[in-house]
Amino acid sequence: MCLAAEAALLALVVAIDATATRGMPGVFLQPACIALTAVIVTPYALPLVVALGAEVSLAVLSAALKSAPVAQFDAFSCLIGMVVAVAVSQVTMHLRLRDFEAREVLRVSSLLDSLCGVYNKGALVAALREYLERSGAHATGAILLFDVDHFKGVNDTHGHYAGDEVLRAFGEALRTSFRATDTVGRFGGDEFMVLAPSLVDERVIREKVGRVRAAMREAGERVLGEPVTLSCGALFAQGCAVTYEEALRQADEALYEAKRSGRDCVVVRGYESGESPARRAGEAEVCG
What is the CA radius of gyration of the chain? Predict the structure, then answer.
């Protein structure tokens, strides 16, 4: 539509410059080409192609309808106009790309936790709600809540800088242990959440959590000189309707079950509808 409008407008301008100037050089086409190629943005520089066609048309018509000196002036003017149009178009595109990149940086930074480099709570909750709404009555996947054991003691004993380093390592361990299609975020304080669509195999869930726990033990030894342990509550659903509030409640219950079991372990539950979800047999991993 934009290209068609550009072509129609330039055709009109060409007709005016070629026939209505009473043998004088054209004066309207060059400003029109420069303005339109700067304003209209399409793939493959198509506005420039349309402008080039208009410039060539004017040069041909001028050679046929005007005196030789005037036709030569129009041809030179068309050449200069095309060069300026290309330059202005490229500068405009560069500025637009810089503006887009700046806006994208701001958009991404508004979604990420500045300390850990994972999604912040707002973005995490929005992603979970959107996934559950999109899944409808066929939600399939897992929600995992992680918590650093005795994190307050880390801050009190080693200082807040060391605590921040532990949280950064936590975010990195989660990103590398889960898939790129999974959503990893900081839910608040030292609590992190992972949304893993289509992950319903309890063995795989435990393996992934085990990787995170091993990575955090190593990070603790490196940062604090002692291992850092985690508690995790994992909730998975397979082809059923899941509400955000109920899923969060049940995942939170699984996390606190892990803490009550001595911490440094994972509790895995299947999603249950109703007021009192039944705990699956054998859901708690041996701690330690």
Answer: 32
The candidate with the shortest Cα–Cα distance to 132, out of 233, 234, 239, 243, is: 243
Coil, strand or helix at 179: coil
pLDDT of residue 120: 94
Q: Where are the domains of the chain?
A: 2-110, 121-270
Structure confidence at residue 62 (pLDDT): 85
Strand, helix or coil for residue 43: helix
In this structure, CATH architecture of domain 121-270:
2-Layer Sandwich (3.30)
The stretches of the chain forming alpha helices (DSSP H) are: 2-19, 29-39, 46-65, 68-111, 121-135, 151-158, 160-177, 202-223, 244-260
Residue for token pair 């050449």: 79
SS3 at position 145: strand
Catalytic residues: 190
Q: What's the pLDDT at 44?
A: 62
Helix 2-19 to helix 29-39 angle (10° resolution) is: 170
**Eight-state DSSP code of residue 243:** -
DSSP 137: G
* Sign for the pseudo-dihedral over CA of 101, 172, 207, 275: negative
Q: pTM here?
A: 0.66
State the 10-residue block means of pLDDT for the chain, 288 residues long.
Answer: 82 83 78 83 77 87 85 87 88 85 78 92 94 93 96 93 95 95 94 96 96 96 95 95 95 95 94 60 42
